Amino acid sequence: MPRPPDGEREVRALRAELAEVREQLREAHETIEMIRSGGAESLVIGPPGQEQIYALASADRTYRLLVEAMNEGAATLSADGIILDANPRLAAMTGRAAAELIGTPVTGLVTGGQLDTLCWLIDVGAGGSSRGEVELTGPAGEAVPVQLATSGFDLGGTLLRCMVLTDLTAQRDAEAGIQALNAELEARVQQRTAELVRANKNMEAFSYSIAHDLRAPLRAMTGYSEALLEDCGDLLDESCRRYAASIQAASERMALLIDDLLQLSRISRAEITATTVDLSAEVAAIVAELRSAEPGRRVRLVIQRGVLAAGDRGLIRTVLQNLLENAWKFTAKRENATIEFGAAAAGGSKIRCHVRDNGAGFDPGYADMLFQPFQRLHAASEFPGTGIGLASVRQVIQRHGGEVWAEGAPGEGATFYLTLDLPT
Ligand SMILES: Nc1ncnc2c1ncn2[C@@H]1O[C@H](COP(=O)(O)OP(=O)(O)OP(=O)(O)O)[C@@H](O)[C@H]1O
Ligand SMILES: [Mg+2]
Fold it and tell me: Residues near ligand 1 with C-beta < 6 Å?
């Protein structure tokens, strides 16, 4: 076979060499892709017999995967602020592909107004770090609030900076939602409070004027029935005199009820001047008065000494007076009547006091009703009263920011509890 001319042989050899270089290039490209994607564990380099194995740290690969999957934006910056690497989350936050971000200055992530903040936050040296908030420019040009944490590293004499960016949009939206809700609640509370204050004022004025206006016709009823009995008593038969006497008794009772209503209304409007009140001393003084009014009664008293509370002395005395008068009244039919006053810590800055007796007691099913005006659980013929005392007690205690409640059982006595502030 004739040999090809020299020129042709050369062309063939060149072609073969070119194909081999191309193949080597393709392999190199594949290798780089594998290193990039973390698909290669190690590299074998060198001619047969002299191969060197370079292990690609698997921790590094895990780290790369982590950065790709992170919910935070992440980027690596060169010393002069050029983005060397950006993860998909940062790409999504800015609306630009990661490949598009790489090679551009980091300052392109924000608008002019945020530039100073950004530069200040990324200005860290090797080993340094910073953290702060800045607004990125979002996909549609909107501001995306982020928390930016920057750390500086020395990589073989070159300064590198890593940025981690946490999107604060959802947090800001939630905060704004809560703020709007709070403002709306606040407005509603203010409106309700204003309505309540107005309604309360109206009620007070109403009951006060009713109580006053009722007095005049009442006085007329009492006066005329009295006159009827005195002037025409002889002309009336027995039943007519009874009718006139009943009118008089009823109008006198109504006058008493009106007095009680007025007292309750006064209590709800009275100014509170808070001082330290020695409750034990008040109890002892009230009981001494009760004893001197009814010296024939034998009642055992147990008073805990030195119980102090903060409050208006006059109003608190009204409370204790009502509770002790009740205890005194409802033990009237008891042989070994005992009345006890004591106190215990109620948690926080409160003290819980109690007045206990072993008297008539009451049905516990109605314990809450006792504090309503004119609600009585015992017949007036058995235990006299109008039923306003405990309503006043509740009014005063509530105005002092405390609570009052009762426990009892028929024939087994009653205990009234109340809470007040401890003295400061
Ligand atoms: N210590 C107690 N033991 C048993 N029942 C009580 C006691 N204290 C109050 N009550 C019940 O609660 C009702 C209301 O008490 P409250 O002090 O308001 O009225 P009152 O004592 O009947 O009349 P007022 O105090 O207006 O003279 C009483 O009528 C009674 O039925
Ligand atoms: Mg009473």
Answer: 260, 322, 326-327, 330, 357, 359-362, 370, 376-378, 385-391, 408, 414
